[in-house]
Every structure is written in structure tokens, then in C-alpha cells.
């Protein structure tokens, strides 16, 4: 099952073997790994190297350590990449155009898939979220509801990569959605337009009309792009 390791950077080779076993389907989400002692014996390396490899894998979001139970394969890679991506974006002087293009790439396809693949329960949930956006009650944070709608749509796409890309980019996208909404409302007083656009997007998805959903999402993203270019 495991190979003996004799070269340098032993802990990295332990990591590589576990990653390869995941890619080959030999280890799956939820599987429990052998104990440190058993892994050490199987691979012919020290427990210190095994412990270091497991620590790195946990940081990467590939495994999780459960007190008193052991180490398990998990799927927290998306959330573990969120902060590094935000830092890379900032350090490389990324701007709103990068985020708009990313949103176009992800959300224009996601909205069509959501209209096709969303379950009846998800459609009802989307309807309830969108209704909150038009309520006059000030307890609702419109920016938070706005981003909740977009995240819900990506989840409804049932496409793992679309959802993962969106989740990894969540820090950037959520802040951008809230900030761009505030700017559109502040400079152009277009809150009703934004609410109407979201209403049309959600209604098209609920009606299972992917072409209309795409059209309304594109209009929405075009408005954001136009506004950000003018400010």
C-alpha cells in the first residue's frame, strides 16, 4: 500500500504518497488514516517525519485531526486557500477588473446550470432569499443578502469546480459584491435597479429558464462593470 522512503525531504515524500493515493481513489473523503506508528512502520520512516507530514496535510485542508479518534481524509482545501488567494491578489496589485472577469467566468455558467439542476427545495430557498432583498425592513443587510444569492446560485449549479472556485475566491468576491453594491447605491441611487435585477435572475432560475437567467445575470454584471469604470 505504501512504499519505503529513502531520499531527502522525507516528510514531503510522505505527503506525496498520501496525495497520490487520494488521486488514485485509494483514499476517499472520510477515510481514517493509519496511526502514526503504523504509517511509520509501513513507510520505513521516523514518526517525526510522519507527524510533520500530517501537520502539513492538515494545514493544506487535506486531513483533519480528531481528538481521541485519529486523522481523517477531509475536504477543507477550499477554505484553506481563501486567505492565500486574497493575499496574492493584493500583493500583485489586482483590481476590480480581475474580479469582474472572474465573476463573469464563474457566474454566467453557474446561473444556467442552477436553472437546470437546482432541486425544488433549493428553488424555494432561493425564492425566500430573494424576497428578503426587496423588504423595506432595515434589519436586513442588503449587501449580505446580495452575496447570499450569488453563493446559493453557484451551489445550485451542482458543479464541484464552479463551487470550489467561487469558495476559494470568497473573500475577494464577497467584499467586492458588498462594496460595488454600496457604490452603485451611493453614486447612482440604483438600489431598486439592483433589486429588480436579482429578482429577474432568481425568477428565471425558479422558472427553469437558463437562457433568461444568463441574460439577466449578464445585465447585472455589466451594470457593475459600467459603474466601477465610471467611479
From TrEMBL:
GO molecular function: DNA binding; DNA-binding transcription factor activity
Swiss-Prot/TrEMBL keywords: DNA-binding, Transcription, Transcription regulation
Record InterPro entries: GntR_C, TF_FadR/GntR_C, Tscrpt_reg_HTH_GntR, WH-like_DNA-bd_sf, WH_DNA-bd_sf
Domain HTH gntR-type: 8-76
Keyword hit for Hydrolase: no
Pfam families cross-referenced by the UniProt entry: FCD, GntR
Organism domain of life: Bacteria
Record bears the keyword Transcription regulation: yes
Protein name: Bacterial regulatory s, gntR family protein
Species for this entry: Paraclostridium bifermentans ATCC 638 = DSM 14991
Organism taxonomic ancestry: Bacteria, Bacillati, Bacillota, Clostridia, Peptostreptococcales
Amino acid at each position: 500500500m505504501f512504499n519505503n522512503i529513502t531520499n531527502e525531504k522525507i516528510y514531503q515524500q510522505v505527503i506525496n504518497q498520501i496525495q497520490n493515493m487520494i488521486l488514485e481513489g485509494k483514499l476517499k473523503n472520510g477515510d481514517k488514516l493509519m496511526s502514526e506508528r503504523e504509517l511509520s512502520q509501513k513507510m520505513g520512516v521516523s514518526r517525526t517525519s510522519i507527524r510533520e507530514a500530517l501537520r502539513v496535510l492538515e494545514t493544506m485542508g487535506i486531513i483533519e485531526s480528531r481528538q481521541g479518534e485519529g486523522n481523517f481524509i477531509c475536504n477543507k482545501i477550499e477554505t484553506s486557500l481563501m486567505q492565500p488567494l486574497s493575499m496574492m491578489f493584493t500583493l500583485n496589485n489586482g483590481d476590480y477588473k480581475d474580479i469582474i472577469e472572474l465573476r463573469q467566468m464563474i457566474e454566467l455558467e453557474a446561473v444556467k446550470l442552477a436553472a437546470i439542476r437546482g432541486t425544488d427545495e433549493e428553488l424555494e430557498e432561493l425564492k425566500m432569499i430573494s424576497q428578503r432583498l426587496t423588504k423595506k425592513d432595515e434589519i436586513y443587510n442588503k449587501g449580505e443578502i446580495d452575496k447570499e444569492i450569488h453563493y446559493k446560485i453557484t451551489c445550485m449549479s451542482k458543479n464541484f469546480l464552479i463551487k470550489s472556485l467561487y469558495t476559494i475566491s470568497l473573500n475577494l468576491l464577497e467584499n467586492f459584491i458588498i462594496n460595488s453594491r454600496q457604490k452603485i447605491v451611493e453614486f447612482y441611487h440604483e438600489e431598486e435597479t439592483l433589486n429588480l435585477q436579482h429578482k429577474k435572475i432568481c425568477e428565471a432560475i425558479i422558472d427553469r429558464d437558463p437562457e433568461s437567467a444568463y441574460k439577466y445575470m449578464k445585465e447585472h454584471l455589466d451594470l457593475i462593470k459600467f459603474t466601477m469604470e465610471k467611479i
